[in-house]
Amino acid sequence: MRFYHFPFFILFGFLAYSQNNHPKVTQADIDLKIYEQDTTAHAVVLYEKGYFDFQLLNRQIYLVKSYEIKVKIFDDQGFEEANIEIPLYHNENAKETAYDIKGMTHNGMVKTSLNQNDIFQEDNSENWSYQKFSLPNIKAGSIITYSYKVKSPFFFNLNGWNFQSNIPKMYSEFNAVIPGMYFYNRSLYGGLPLAIKETSIKKSCFNPGPGYPVVDCEVIKYAMKDIPAFYDKEQYMLAPSNYIGRLDFELATHYRLNGSKKHYTKSWKSVDSEFRKDKDIGRQLAKSTFFEKQLQENNLQHANELESAKNIFNFVKKHFTWNGKFGIYKNIRVKEAFNKKIGNIGEINISLINMLNAADIKANLMMISTREHGLPKKSQPVITDFNYIIAKADINGKTYLLDASDTFTAFGFLPFRSLNHYGRVMDFKEDSYWFDIQPQTKNKVVIRGNASLYPELGEIRGKIREINQGYKAIAKYKFLKGKSESEYLDQIEESSISDFYIENYTLEKERSNEKLLMQSYDFVIENALKDGTIYLNPILLKFFKKNPFLKDNRNFPIDFGYPYSYEYNLIIEIPEKYKLISLPENKAMALPNYNGMLEFTCSESAGQLNVRFIFQLKNHYFESEDYKAIKTFFNEAVNIEKNSVVTIKKI
């Protein structure tokens, strides 16, 4: 992840946006048939501009955001760009409003204006609503233009500027004028280069009202050109907010007109103090008497501290049903949730922490952000960056990160949604601190098989054992949930080669546990022999359906969540009067810095065909510079599985 952080004395009196001109369409815009820098684009932003300023309206200061844009639509897959949503924030006391909304569709010389009656508002959540409209008469080749203003009483909601979006942009410009009463931090994310970066001080630019001194402002102008589209549906990525090219603002201090000031950005020391007293977190961690009673009633303590911790973890995991809510800032009532046996993430994992501490096992609350929520900023506390709670337990000199909300998660494992690099440990007896999330490393699938040819039957028969370990076992258990045995076996057969059928399936429960799943079954390949010859793909069970990396380039990291490996071994007995005619080529490949390797060998020895395929990812995180190597690596693996063929012929 690349970002740049600039604390700055922000001043907004913004060149009062009298220049709210609707974007003009040129002949060059009309003639544009394709965007040369991304020929796959269904639409492109030709021009985009924003003006943010503070204005005194009816004796109250408002943040006014003005926006204008011009978009070329190339085909029907780009029609969605004509459906517009303007997000508006509100609370119990105030709200943002959108106004001066204008829109037009240009089809050559024919112009169709937006009808104001087609604009409507829709509530989305407790604090957000959307002003919506769709531009009319959209066709392939249309150019749409629209502009609007948003008036906001929330100074903290100077929510920055997205230079990057789901379609490419030729030009995007952000302008702001900020009065000296406001001090913001700003951060530039995404690593894309700025074409324009200008800042200047404008003297006496903002009058906050009668009887108050006129203040200076900082005028800023940032712009980018030829901005690539951001594809947020790509696999193995964290939250798009970590990487999308954008400029973020965060209100740090408001210098009030009466001479006082309010700090919005706090220190971790002050945050720690507030959390200790908070009724939803700090006070809920002080229920020792209640949970000591639960320890005794359920006989959970053991002479071995680690065994006690495992007993408590498994008890809490089985006792609670997660209600699907995270709930870390409000509505946490651990005693009530415990008695009802249902709760949110905060209630479940704070109950776990309470019970561990009641057993004299040191456990702290750790705030994290899920993979979909984004990485927390380390530069200063931003509490809304966190949306999840886990437990950090220290046992016999070793640290365990625990989450009892997931039925399938083993002790010492976190659900995949929580594997997001780092979090903040709230040690209320000491100061809080950052702590890295290190995923478990023993995650693998091993397939071992033996088979024999039966020419008289035209069949190949054999036995396969599949071993899933670590996160691969957890994923397999989840996959099996809710499926009948026949449904599961049908899926295996369909994903294998033609005429492959399973017989005598066994889930080896006595040899399996929450971190290990062992299965075995007999199989038959019918119609294997044709005219005395067998053409066989020896990779009977495949690890890959296709290469998940299809784009030519990627401007953000690849994050698999955890390292893993696949291993496939098959031995086929070749009967007398038959011999191997051809074998696929042996192959080997390694990723840079030996962060991954694959190896495929196919050989004959003592009347046996020996097939071995190994695929290892030794690291779970790769920078964007490694993308082409990763893409080639997976492509080679898919090619081995798909195109390896052995020819066996009767002598």
Automatic annotation (TrEMBL):
Origin superkingdom: Bacteria
Tell me the protein's name: Transglutaminase domain-containing protein
Q: Which organism is it from?
A: Croceitalea dokdonensis DOKDO 023
